[in-house]
Amino acid sequence: MLTDQGKISSFQLAMMVFPSILATAILSVPSLTMKYAGHDMWLSPILGSIVGLAALGVSLGLHRLYPGQMLMQASKQILGWWLGKLYGLTILIYLPHLNGLIIRGYGEFIASNALPKTPLFVIMGTMCMVCAINVRQGIEVVGRTAQVFVSILVVLLCLIFILLIGELKPAELLPFMENGIGPPIKGAIPPAAWFSEYIILAFLFPYVNHKTGMTRTMLVSLFMTTAAMTATNLFCLFLMGDMTDSFSYPFMIAARYITIADFLQHIEASIIAIWIFGIFVKISVFVYIYSTSFAEWLGMNDYKPLVFPLAFLSLVYSYWIVSGHASAANLISAAANMYTLTLLLVLPACLYGYALLRNLGGANRKKGAHPS
Amino acid sequence: MKRRWRKASLPCVILMLSGLMLSGCWDRHEINDLAIVLATGVDYADEQVQLTAQIFLPRKGEGSQSSSGGGGGSSPSGVTIIRTAKGETAAEAMNRLQRRISRELFWGHCEVIVLSEQAGKRGLGEYIDFFLRYPQFREHAYVFSSKGPARSILEMLDPLERSSAESLREMANLNLGSRVTLLELARSIEGSSRSAILSQLLVTSPNREDLGQQENTPLMKGMSLYKNDKYVMTVTEPRSVGVLMLANQLNDIILPVALPPYKGTISILLTEARTTIRPRIANQEWSAYVLVKANGGVVLNTTDADLSKPAVQAELRKAWANRLKELAEDALLLSQKELKADLFHFSDQFRRYYPKQWRAQQKEWEAIFPHMKVRMETDTTIKTIGKSTESQGKSGSKK
After folding, report:
1. Which residues contact B61 (CB under 8 A, 6 or more apart)?
2. Of A29, A131, B202, B244, whose Cβ has the fewest other Cβ atoms within 10 Å?
């Protein structure tokens, strides 16, 4: 049984996933991919989207085998009660890390670009509070807020792209593949870590009311995310060239660079405001997944009592994950990317692979599995 | 009924309370506690960096204020004031500058940065890093160099504009010289060509009728050239025309062209010029082909030539093309032989079109560049000959 009885449409789900990947990726990915891929960094998100496709495939496959069950429930069906609980525990241990990272990333960005003197705790705490309230209202409200905010986000993102066109130098595209195909593949790891977050679909599919056309909607959503990430990388490359990786937030620099007809300038503050919409949806989605998974793991009927404590735990984690004076830009190290990829892609993929093997062995064994 | 009221009023109260939070508690800035900087100048003297800020003075209309205090001056119209501070680094100077001002300095509206030649001789790296690191500076700020102290440029008061910062920005937008933003400057220096071109500003000596030294407009004349982030030399007209042409920044320049059999000259206004550099590596030999395409129109004809004749036009086109070619070749000579600095980004083109060779011989570029063969070609079009066909104002030409 699900811990939330709400229903969303597949379009709303797509709207929730889009900022869940993009909101933080748009800030860090151009700089991170440039570091490894150099000039060809715009290829990296396209290569990374293969991981997104894999995560999407795993989520859809699990959903097909165990309809109406989120990943936590399916794992118990597949691995048995003990192993299933253990599997759930690894996810529950991992999720606060990811939540903490997202919240910290948000806090650092706001602190360095808009509110330098405000304590991080206030910036991150207020956001957690709002997101927790949002999550407590249930999946339907999270879906609705996503629908509203993401529409605004997309319009403004396009606006920035259009306003920047005059400053771009497409010649930066050359030399293509300066050092062969190796660097773009290496550079694909950070975007791949972001794309692996598509596994959140395995937690959210059970809430979708009309399953017909869901696969297509999700594929379109994956395509849009890839396109947006590639466009961001291209715009940063065309504007800043090889300097892209010398900035912490290249996209912010790009937005600050807009100057049209002497009056349309200094619009970066509105961009921060819009960006907050995206991060709000992202934090909400992840806190929602965290609380429903936890409630499911504990065998509770309702996830709502857990929302505030877990949101607070995520906030605390945002302090614990950072050692020393790391800024948000270098929080995302190579090791962190591998950690994310392992837990969000490799483990679910193994789970799915095992489930497929079991199903090949005989449909009867599925019935014999421990009931949850 | 009462409960419904209470229920409805609760969101309203929360909304109102959230209004209190909107300004932000720690980061609130009252606009009347800010000193808005319009332009920044960097000088270097006595082994110290001098940072000058041109600050917008909001209380216009209170008339002139006496310029008082060390390092201070104010304008008769009272729109801007100048403050300077010294320090070992630009950052230290900025910190000291703040201590001279009662309001918090706000650099977010600084649209113009002036770097003096003295500061440039030491290397621009320090200043570029500072401007790109300190959060408030805008990457779109225009950067100029100045022959004298940058302070004297900022001190000037343009009668036409609110401040000299504004006039400099407008002049940059008019494409009078090279228009370089902070980001472009950084890219140019950090890129493979490791050089930069900035417009140079001068303080003109005021005429006797003028009110004073301060009430003046900065003069944009010549270009300052930088190699490896250090200032190396200044070029003035006519050389600067060629430099601008090869840098693809030439605009609206009027050149007199002689048409040999006729006496006098024909002046042509260049309206559009595009320079393309095509690199070539054949048999290990690096060479380049430069094509300048220019459009223009005749604005003055002091010869007897009848410009409506196609033959005359063709000859004029050729003469003009030759004139442009001379200028471009002179600029190339300067870049290749005299300075040995890749001012026109040939290296970027080699990197784009011959990535493998570039990677292999990147380190030898400085040796290759001065001896590289460059073929120059100019292609011109004369779009209009103006309102008249034959030359006007010749006495007795229409009996």
Report:
1. B78
2. B202
Instruction: Please give the residue of chain A at the shortest CA–CA distance from B139.
Output: A257
Task: Establish whether this prediction's ipTM goes over 0.90.
Answer: no
Percent of chain B with pLDDT over 90: 0
Tokens, residue B116: 């003096």
Burial B5-21 (b: 16+ CB within 10 A, else e): eeeeeeeeeeeeeeeee
- A-chain residues near B20 (CB < 8 A): none
Q: How far is A243 from chain B (nearest CA, A)?
A: 7
Read off the pLDDT of each residue in A269-298 and give the average, rounded to a whole number: 87
Out of A115, A242, A262, whose CB is closest to B191? A242
**CA torsion through residues A138, A142, A147, A148, sign:** positive
Residue B215 DSSP symbol = B
Q: How far is B348 from chain A (nearest CA, A)?
A: 9
Q: Using the beta-carbon criterion (under 8 Å), do B24 and A256 form an inter-chain contact?
A: no
For B219-256, the pLDDT digits (tens) are: 778 888 888 888 888 888 778 888 888 888 887 888 88
| Separation of alpha carbons A281 and A142, rounded Å | 7
Which two structure tokens, joined as six digits, stand for A138?
A: 């249930």
How would you list the strands of the sheet with B265-282, edge to edge?
B253-258, B265-282, B285-301, B373-384
**CA–CA distance from B144 to each of A259, B171, B192, B255 (Å)?**
18, 11, 22, 25
Kindly determine whether residue A118 and residue B24, on different chains, have CB atoms separated by under 8 Å. yes
Cβ-based neighbour number of residue B34 at 10 Å: 17
pLDDT the model gives residue A298: 85
Residues in a beta bridge with B37 = B55
* B contacts of A256 (beta carbons < 8 Å): 138-140
Contact across the interface for B359 and A118, Cβ inside 8 Å: no
| pTM recorded for the entire structure | 0.81
- Tell me, yes or no, if A116 comes closer than 8 A to chain B by beta carbon: yes
Is B119 buried (19+), middle (13-18) or exposed (0-12) by CB count in 10 A? buried
pLDDT classification of B24: cutoffs 50, 70, 90 = low
Amino acid identity at A17: V
Q: pLDDT band at residue B75, thresholds of 50, 70 and 90?
A: very low
pLDDT digits (tens, 9 = 90+) for A110-120: 888 888 888 88
CA pair distance B354, B368, nearest whole angstrom: 15
A198-213 mean pLDDT: 83
Kindly tell me if the per-residue pLDDT of B65 is higher than 60: no
CB pairs under 8 A between A and B: 62
* CB within 8 Å: B27 and A118: yes
Which residues from chain B sit within 8 angstroms of residue A113, using beta carbons? 135
